[in-house]
Amino acid sequence: MSKLLVINGSVIPSDKSNSHEMARVFLEEYKKVNPNDEIIELDLNKLVVGTNVLTTETFSTYWGEEEGMKYINQLKDVDKLLVIAPMYNFHVSGMLKNYIDHVALANQTFSYKYATKGASIGLLDKLKVQILATQGAPKGWYQWGDHVAYLKGTWEFMGAKVAEPILLAGVKVEPLSTQSPKEIVSSITSDLIAAAKKF
């Protein structure tokens, strides 16, 4: 039995969210293949780890036991991570960035100790990650804004094995913009099912 942590990085209500619909399809298949796995869900909209911003005032307590270390230890305890990640203004949501700021901590999730010069060692080497991402514009429109590359690179930096991310792009332009999340996601259902079976 494995533990799967699902992180909701979307600010859109689930019934109107393309990324939530992607996750629903993915998890439906995942549960068929892994019926005994424990699934833990984090809604960053409702947690301090998603809303607490790193500032001069919060710096001294940011990685405290209650927030930072709590979620770092959770990542060390689970086997798999599913990240729901729409694009907002060319990046992940602020709350997903806040979460990453909490868990990306030297000597906890990565280290430069014992690494070769100019390198690092990721400490989450038992973690497997699947990224489900959406963006309003078609793929390639924003050369400076690639939130999927940012997420993939960050989790790999921390040692995780990242499965091929699934990006649903162009959801804010026609014809997708006129469709419901269920209709939009139906175009990549086979990709989601295949990824869930391998995850």
| Total discrete domains | 1
CATH architectural arrangement: 3-Layer(aba) Sandwich
How large a portion of the residues is in β-strands, by DSSP E? 15-25%
What is the average per-residue confidence, as pLDDT, rounded to a whole number? Answer: 94
Order of helices and strands: EHEHHEHEEEHEEHH
Give the N-terminus to C-terminus distance in angstroms.
Answer: 13 Å
- Look at the helices and sheets and give the structural class: alpha/beta
* Rg estimate, integer Å: 17 Å
- Unreliable parts: none
Q: What do we call the CATH homologous superfamily?
A: Flavodoxin domain
Protein name: FMN dependent NADH:quinone oxidoreductase
GO molecular function, one term: oxidoreductase activity, acting on NAD(P)H as acceptor
Subunit structure: Homodimer.
EC number: 1.6.5.-, 1.7.1.17
